[in-house]
Amino acid sequence: MGAYVITGGSKLSGKIRVQGSKNASLPILAATILNCQKSRVKNVPEIKDVQVMISILTMLGADITQNGNELTIDTSAVNTWEVPEQLMRKMRSSIVLMGPLLGRFGRVKVSYPGGCEIGPRPIDLHLKGFAALGVKMSESHGFIYAEAGKLKGANIHLDFPSVGATENLMLAAVLAEGRTIIRNAAKEPEIVDLQNFLNKMGCRVKGAGTDTIKIEGCSIADLKPVEDYTVIPDRIAAGTYLVAAAATRGNIVLENVILEHIEPILAKLREMGCRIKTEDDRVELWVETPLRALDSLRTLPYPGFPTDMQAPMMALLATVEGTSIITETVFENRFKHAEELRRMGANIKINGNTAIIKGIKRLTGAVVEAKDLRAGAALVIAGLAADGKTIVEGTSYIERGYEWFDRNLQALGAKIEKTN
Predict the structure, then answer these.
(1) What is the pairing mode between strands 38-42 and 70-74?
(2) Which of 172, 192, 179 is nearest to 153 (CA)?
(3) One-letter-per-residue 3-state SS of 115-171
(4) pLDDT < 70: residue spans in the chain
(5) Are the CB atoms for 216 and 173 separated by under 8 Å?
(6) Are 285 and 276 in contact (CB under 8 A)?
(7) C-beta of residue 158 within 8 angstroms of C-beta of residue 185
(8) For the chain: N or C, fewer Cβ within 10 A?
(9) Are 401 and 237 in contact (CB under 8 A)?
(10) Helix (H, G, I), strand (E, B), or coil: what is residue 216?
(11) Handedness of CA 350, 355, 358, 362 (dihedral sign)
(12) Residue 124, annotated as binding a ligand
């Protein structure tokens, strides 16, 4: 699987540009199925999850040209509604293909998706929403079969503001007959980005970023090519680099950020005592005085503190003297990294969905294993801040979401090498 070998103790310093958003790119790439024409999408990160999505679209019949961070996708020849099982199992986000395939073909066959092991992430909200749109579903031998003669607009109330369910239902509803209203919708910036892409294609979607999204259905004939679309910056990647700089007590500048998107992260870093300067699409962080523990950090749907930043923040708080408390409210079983951090000397106790962290002056290097994407990033951060050598096994998880992670950290002065 590969490993990162890290020699800790170097302060991160310098300037990097933040990659395009992983969590915005994947549903946007899925959306290209809808218009049966060409779409040109820029600022797509070169990460493993994107490569899996490209492979799925190609196997469905799409013609894709990749030039660095720019993709040209022609879906005119897509002719199947069955998603390959072996690829579906590699990535949780592949479930978002159900919506556009239902919209285009009126049917879809998928297996249950794979991905990171961060606790139960049932897709019942997706399926209940599809049922409201007139889809009939059956399950057999690990596959989901869904079929609708024609999707019908509906009023849908999500029991939880699920990002994936909101995206999937948007993607299906744009080609449904009549109006669809999704209430208690997720408000994440990636939902807004998907709306903007769909509207550039000729769809009629409004309300993304609020808890109510309204969609006026249209036909495939109404849709047009997307000649030029740029994906938003990745707020979780930005947060990860900021936390890494704080953990090493360094000084970094990030370019290509949307400040509003990372404000929940900046607020907690300021609360800890980090110095932060923002301007336009740029943020600088540095540490001048000893950092403070956090009495309470609670993960919440946007605009709350993102669950994807919980693990990196735990690694940082393990290096800050005092007692910090993290409460994880979004995903169960998302504390697997705590056990690995304890191998490095961290003092962390888990009680249900709460982690109690008693910071120490210095972590010590150890051999640790990434169990999921964000946990892997957390272990790298811990290694950068630790005494001695740390080996983080499982780089394939980390490469699912971070573009050239080791190279970017090297550019900031980190002593990190990838080995097989």
Answers:
(1) antiparallel
(2) 179
(3) CCCCCCCCCHHHHHHHHHCCCEEEEECCEEEEECCCCECCEEECCCCCHHHHHHHHH
(4) 114-122
(5) no
(6) yes
(7) yes
(8) C
(9) yes
(10) strand
(11) positive
(12) yes
- Only one residue has tokens 């959306």, namely 31
The pLDDT score that the predictor gives to residue 116 is 46
State yes or no: cis peptide before 303, omega within 30 of 0.
Answer: yes
- Identify whether 274 is a catalytic site residue: no
Question: What is the C-alpha separation between 274 and 261, in angstroms, rounded?
Answer: 18
Residue 317 counted as an annotated binding residue: no
pLDDT at 114: 59
What secondary structure does DSSP assign to 53-80, as a single string? HHHHHHHHT-EEEEETTEEEEE-TT---
Please report, for the chain, how many H helices and E strands are present, in that order: 14, 23
Helix orientation angle between 235-247 and 22-31, rounded to the nearest 10 degrees: 170
Q: What is the pLDDT of residues 55-86, one digit of tens each?
A: 999 999 999 999 999 999 999 999 999 998 88
Nearest CA to 32 out of 65, 67, 68 is that of 65
Residue from 36, 116, 203, 274 carrying the catalytic annotation: 116
DSSP string, 294-357: -S-EEB-STTSB-GGGHHHHHHHHTTSSEEEEEE--S-TT--HHHHHHHHTT-EEEEETTEEEE
What is the C-alpha radius of gyration for the chain, rounded to an integer number of angstroms? 21
For 368, left (φ over 0), alpha (ψ -120 to 50), or beta? beta
CA 27/CA 205 separation, integer angstroms: 15
Six-digit token string for 161: 């503001």
Q: Which domains does the chain have, with CATH numbers?
A: 3-19+233-419 (3.65.10.10), 22-230 (3.65.10.10)
> Does the annotation place 125 within a ligand binding site?
yes
Contact 389, 7 (CB under 8 A): yes
Half-sphere exposure of 386 (CA within 13 A, CB side): 29
Residue 419: CB partners within 8 Å, gap ≥ 6?
2, 3, 4, 5
- The tokens for 251 are 């000084």
pLDDT tens readout for residues 362-418: 999 999 999 999 999 999 999 999 999 999 999 999 999 999 999 999 999 999 999
The answer to whether 206 is a known ligand-binding residue is: no
Query: Which residue in 13, 1, 102, 18 sits closest to 403, CA to CA?
Result: 18
How far apart are the C-alpha atoms of 116 and 155, rounded to whole Å?
Answer: 32
